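A.,

Following up on our hallway conversation. Structure tokens first:
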């Protein structure tokens, strides 16, 4: 069963060209909920966590839910460590859930745009992913799922505090709205620190590719709300939307400036990265991320015309350690992974 979700690097939803997809890779909504009559997962017994899983999976038979999407449940206990790592790399489960073996589960839609985690940090985490800048559309879909689950389950809710969660930073609405955004021109024009400082001052957080604690490699940044208490869901979404819209315009302006003032240097940088990726025999993940970022910028600006941005989206996942080992069918040493990564990139560039 996991094979369908772990053998392909590119989820179906990523194949769509969403709005502003030259800059915004994806939009995500995550809703954290808990069941009133049970301890939070970190304190629940094995029996209690099993009962939570049973109650949540019972809701999947709801006709209204079935009309929205066909869903499939996978127990984390049935997945190999490698399968779990690939699901993390595809952003379908969190590292926290991958490390949880006590009645943890993930419920996925066929196109992988919907991922519902059970017995992670909270009993229920509903996640919706959309391509490009579609944060409002992602919220609408996640809200539909949440309404159906809430009609069937007794959520832990307090009139003053809102939805109760394991982590205090999620109390209130329990929602985390985020966008994955590619900002190479702001980095190259040395405006990024000023922009990121301004983002944090308006109540938003900036993280790397895999969220909290991860490094922003390949000029990819995850921007999300920090405040979940004291604002409505719509206010949180509107604030994020407004700020990201401004960042998109700043990135577009920086790209135009680079083309006008440093066209030859920019073209040289893009083509050098393209040449190295096309011929390198060994490539670590950090260099791969940076050079793929250069090539993606080259594609978006029309410097490179024989590659599709979809190939770059695919390679973002395919060059991660878990997928490289899944692709090889065995565990690989760090050096073997670097060799395999370079080989994989060469193959994708040649056969595109």
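Then the amino acids I'd put at each of the 352 positions:
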């Amino acid at each position: 069963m996991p094979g369908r979700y772990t053998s392909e690097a590119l989820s179906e939803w990523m194949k769509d060209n969403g709005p502003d997809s030259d800059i915004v890779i994806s939009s995500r909504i995550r809703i954290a909920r808990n069941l009133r009559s049970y301890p939070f997962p970190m304190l629940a017994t094995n029996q209690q966590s099993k009962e939570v899983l049973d109650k949540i999976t019972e809701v999947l038979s709801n006709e209204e839910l079935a009309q929205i999407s066909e869903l499939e449940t996978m127990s984390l206990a049935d997945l190999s460590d490698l399968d779990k790592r690939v699901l993390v790399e595809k952003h379908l489960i969190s590292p926290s859930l991958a490390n949880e073996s006590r009645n943890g589960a993930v419920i996925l839609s066929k196109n992988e745009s919907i991922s519902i985690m059970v017995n992670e940090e909270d009993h229920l985490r509903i996640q919706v992913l959309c391509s490009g800048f579609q944060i409002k559309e992602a919220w609408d879909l996640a809200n539909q799922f949440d309404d159906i689950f809430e009609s069937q389950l007794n959520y832990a809710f307090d009139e003053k505090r809102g939805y109760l969660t394991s982590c205090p930073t999620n109390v209130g609405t329990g929602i985390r709205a985020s966008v994955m955004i590619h900002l190479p021109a702001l980095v190259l024009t040395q405006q990024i620190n000023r922009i990121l400082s301004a983002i944090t001052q308006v109540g938003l957080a900036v993280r790397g590719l895999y969220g909290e604690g991860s490094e922003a490699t390949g000029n990819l940044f995850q921007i999300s709300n920090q405040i979940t208490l004291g604002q409505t869901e719509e206010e949180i979404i509107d604030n994020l939307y407004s700020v990201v819209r401004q960042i998109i315009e700043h990135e577009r302006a920086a790209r135009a400036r680079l083309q006008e003032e440093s066209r030859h240097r920019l073209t040289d940088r893009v083509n050098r990265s393209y040449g190295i990726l096309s011929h390198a025999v060994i490539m670590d993940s950090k260099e791969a991320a940076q050079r793929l970022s250069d090539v993606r910028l080259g594609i978006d600006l029309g410097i490179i015309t024989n590659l599709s941005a979809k190939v770059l989206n695919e390679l973002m996942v395919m060059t991660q350690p878990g997928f490289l080992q899944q692709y090889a069918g065995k565990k690989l040493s760090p050096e073997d992974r670097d060799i395999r990564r370079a080989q994989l990139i060469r193959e994708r560039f040649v056969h595109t």
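The beta strands are 24-33, 71-75, 105-109, 114-118, 124-131, 157-158, 162-163, 175-182, 204-207, 220-225. Curious whether your intuition agrees with the design.

B.
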